[in-house]
Amino acid sequence: MTKKLFVKTYGCQMNVYDSERMAEIMGEQGFRATETPEDADMILLNTCHIREKAAEKVYSELGRYRNLKAQNPKLVIGVAGCVAQAEGEEILRRQSLVDIVVGPQSYHRLPELTRQVESGKKAVDTDFPWESKFAELPQRQALKKDPAAFLTVQEGCDKFCSFCVVPYTRGAEASRPVPEVVREAQTLVEHGVRDITLLGQNVNTYHGKNHDGKDWSLAKLIWELSKINGLERIRFTTSHPIDMTDDLIAAHGECEKLMPYLHLPVQAGSDQVLKRMGRKHTVNAYRKIIEKLRRARPDIALSGDFIVGFPEETDADFEATLELVREIQYSHAYSFKYSPRPGTPAATRKQVPEAIKTERLQRLQELLTEQQQDAQQAMVGEVVTVLMERTGRKPKQMVGKSEYRHTVHVENCTMQIGDMAEIKILAATANSLAGAIAA
Ligand code: SAH
Ligand code: SF4
Ligand code: F3S
What we know:
The protein is 34% helix and 23% strand. The protein is an alpha/beta fold. Strands 2-1-3-4-5-6 form a six-stranded parallel sheet, sandwiched between helices. FE3-S4 cluster binds next to helix 1, helix 4 and helix 8.
């Protein structure tokens, strides 16, 4: 009898990737995916620790499984991901329903951990093992059959920005070897994938070894992947400004398969704040990178992340962030209130009052939303290339992504998932575009 696995994913795209790999490795143990926790034999929460609320959500979700476990004592409940890494055994103490705690670098050991639970013991594995989990995982299966997929090429972070937990939860920065990445990309393409987003907490620090014994840059990796027939689109995320090298910037102008979209977080528009964040660059340095990128690829769509209310952020610091946003013009961006994380240096500094954080976030989000709407509106009348990713809610409607990562709804469309077509944009809302096949 096949067993059922329910995976719930929180946090970043790297967790989305990891959840797919967990489903694949448990697939080899006879588990099939289910969309509902109620009929699952195993529940895995793949968690995020980046802000306070993220971790709290996990505990409240776990509480909801009490009845399920009462009805089915054999139900195995696992906590994976960055909360698992950060809290370890503490999770078992706080929530006795949990059987497995497994960190982001050791989930290839899930089958072993499951056997341990079946023999009556709780299982905790938050090692940063010497062996790479990637080498231990089964070949990529692309179970979801999406034409767009994620591919983790780099993990961990050595930058230790003063607000951030990632270096503690994901461990030291490391790159996967080039041949391993190429093989996985080929497998994905054989499964019908046409759009690959290369992932890493700091993906542009990528320096994977190739057969030549040399460390290859992300730009070289992208050029190599662009040779794969059937792979039409390459993207990468997330990048740090200080690793935005000239070869990578140039690739945006020269490599046809590299899409004109870049997520390049700046976090704040004040040099004092950037310094205290430990971001290792100034506002001007960031401006220069954006200028170079726009010179290489004038139509590039820019996205970013912002933190408001970082400790000691003044009104003037915050105004500088608004000023920078007005100057750059983002097509899309994420913004957050600073959330003190235990064990990070910024958590012990003088905090900005909550009410001020709330007000700043609201002002920044108003501006970013306005820019996003302008960017969407500017697409009306343009022709974009859309990769059809799913069927829409209406009959004969398809939904896909433009090269700039806009979501595009196409009416009266006889295309199939995975097809690409030139679409003329006829209307725009805040979050999506609507269009028709261009004549
Ligand atoms: N490596 C990426 C960011 C990864 S974390 C980079 O360096 O840009 C994703 C985003 O979460 C960050 O860009 C930041 O904006 C936000 N973030 C991280 N820690 C945070 C904290 N303690 N409080 C609020 N937002 C935070
Ligand atoms: Fe976190 Fe990114 Fe800074 Fe690394 S570079 S510490 S992941 S914000
Ligand atoms: Fe969250 Fe871990 Fe990603 S803390 S943002 S899931 S790296």
